[in-house]
Amino acid sequence: MRILALETSCDETSAAIVEDGTAVFSNVIASSRSAFERSGGVIPEEAARKQVECVVPVIHQALDDAAADLRSIHTLATTRGPGLTGSLLVGTTAARALASLWHKPLIGVHHTLGHLTSTWLECAEEPAFPIITLSASGGHSDMWYRMSHTRGILLGRSRDDAAGEAFDKGAALLGLPYPGGPAIERTGKHGNPAAFPFPLPLHNTDTLDFSFSGLKTALKYTIRDLPHGDSKPVLADLTASYELAICNHLLDRLTRAVAKHPDIQEIHVVGGVSANTRLRTMVQSAFGNRKIRFPVSLAYCTDNAAMIASAAFFLTSELGEDAYAPFLTTASLPLTDVVQRRKEPPI
Ligand code: KG4
Ligand code: ZN
Hints:
By secondary structure, this protein is α/β, with parallel strands linked by helices. The chain folds into 2 domains: 2-118 and 299-337, Nucleotidyltransferase, domain 5, CATH 3.30.420.40; 128-295, 2-Layer Sandwich (Nucleotidyltransferase, domain 5). The chain has helices at residues 44-65, 85-102, 111-117, 163-173, 180-187, 213-224, 235-260, 277-286, 305-319; strands spanning 2-7, 12-19, 23-31, 75-81, 106-110, 131-136, 141-146, 152-157, 266-270, 291-293. The longest helix is centred in the C-terminal third of the chain and has 26 residues, at 235-260. The protein is globular and about 65 Å long.
């Protein structure tokens, strides 16, 4: 089954064509990110304006890259939420229009289910369930126990900021551009990660939840206590230490989740933060003897339409007709709806 999917939940406009959930024929991503480098975050109104401009060219490009025409597309898919309302509406409106014009069925996909499925893109080997998936991005940080592609139990979630948000807000405090994750990774590359101590959040609490706001506050006070409150002379060491603190917390949660669920067959790490080299190295060395998967390409870690096409495929294969249920475009969508859609009314 060949699916053309759109993803416009934040500042990206992406269109992709994917066959049977894994074979990526095209994955075009246009980002308005550079417009927000100085603002420290996305300005929703501006992001949506840019998406209105580029959604049609991006769809054309995805069709061209795949050398595909309408007849070869079986189904359309789009992110139905969560995300920025204006941005989501650009993608869902375009997808609804194309579905009606081309007489194709349409599947609405929860953004987080897209991230959870991203490890299947271009992946030859069938996964073995159950799986523990750590999903860490700018909008969420969740720990999942997954019984199948579309069924799972949410084991823990962030009580405050998401991991990517901790990178973004930390970068703003350090005078680095948005998005903070790549900027912090670059700046701290040759720094000493042991130079500044940071706490390990929730370490002594029996939970699989995350909490990042304390790290951000610790960074703020560390900067305040530097001579003249100037982080520039120690920027590499401080960013490396802050990056390590975020990775330590993620790894601490993952270690606890794996220990609590000895039956799992694989460990997956997905979402924008899974692009982080330090995190990848730490996860590999902590669980070297287990089956570990990250998205195979960095383009599948951050927001992209290929993962939405993949999730749509698995919704059809596991839910049948229910996958095509009508949906609303919804800025805040409960996490319980990510993978347990069967008995719920359409959202
Ligand atoms: O998944 P994503 O593209 O969008 C959301 O669903 O939120 O994730 C974006 C987040 C941003 O907060 C960004 O700072 C973070 O992922 N990120 C990274 C890296 N690349 C992107 N964080 C750490 N290291 C990276 N290399
Ligand atoms: Zn995302």
